[in-house]
Amino acid sequence: MDNLEKFISQNRADFDDKSPPARVWDKIDIKKQTESKKISFWRGFKVAAAVLLLLTSGAAMGIAFMNSQNASTLASNTLTDEFLEVEQFYQKEINVKVKKLTSMKDYDTSVNEDLDQLDISINELKSEIADAPRGSEAEIISTMINNYKTKVELLERILDRMENTKSTDDKNIQNESTDI
Length: 180
Description:
The protein is an all-alpha fold. Helix content is 89%, strand content 0%.
């Protein structure tokens, strides 16, 4: 034990008989009361500020979410409108080529099976676009457009071959008639 502790323990009774005057206790109590009032005011202010901050940030996030939903819906509608225009263009091209092809006398109906397969593929993609996750619509539409392009290219190749065959046959007929 150090000297101070020895002194306190030896003279403990002398320390305990003295008490501070009542006014000292009054001042202590007043300080506690005003501090507790200050603490409760600041605590209430902090809670109110936190609630206001949460409400404001929640509203801001809600507005941002709604705007993004509206933007993606608008983009989806725009994609759909553009696709409908492209689809109409390709349908006209396909119809013209099919009419031309069916008017030829050497027309092979097995071509219809290939065209039907492409139509089935396009219809499957159309049904998938409704259930597709947001953002993947453009990829599906691009695939449908590629199917339409493939269909047009297929018809063009068939028409070219048939016209080349016809022109070759016509030349052969002319050569045979000149030989006679």
